[in-house]
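Readers of this paper often ask what the protein records in our data store actually look like. Such a record has a labelled line for the sequence and another for the backbone structure tokens. The tokens are whole numbers drawn from a learned vocabulary of local backbone shapes. We quote a single record here, exactly as it is kept in our systems:
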Amino acid sequence: MIDFIAAAPLIPNGWRHADRRAVGIMLLGTMIGVPIGTWALTQIDALTVRWMIVALIVPMLGLLMSGWRYRGTPTAAITAMVGAIAGFFNGVAQVGGPPIVLYWLRDATAARVVRANIIVFFAASSVLTTISYLIGGVLTTAVIGLAILTGPAFGVGLWLGSHMFGLASEETFRRICYALIALAALISLPLFDGWLR
């Protein structure tokens, strides 16, 4: 909910610069992954889900920072498979970004196109996830209340980030992304619950 509402002003510009065919193919996979992830969210213990998030983010970050990239031809089947994986992690924990970023940063694609792809993809996948969460009974009044409380802070961060985009080189842009992913992984570690929660 927060992602979609806060990112809505970015969608028109993202739509102009995105590789819409690649985004559409990825969304086909996401339509399969999101309901499975939503089902897992309702069935798996919350602590296990949090460790799953760390188990996804840390290896993906390591691959990104190592310089490894998928060098194969980006076929429709592979793009849809990445979308399904991202959809699963989006459904189970709203962390579908790492597989998408790892896949779309596979070559020298301009940061503007990658950013546009991500904006358009997550705008559409947010709609899919919201529908799946409504059907799965995940969107309770408590969750909606939390979204209302945290939404403004998220919106301010998104606004600052969108206005700062383009001020740094593509290399600096990637390093900032790596640092933010690492911080998210660190904060989400259940080991630090005593200090952070």
Remarks:
- The chain has one domain: 2-196.
- The mean pLDDT is 85.
- The longest helix spans residues 111-136.
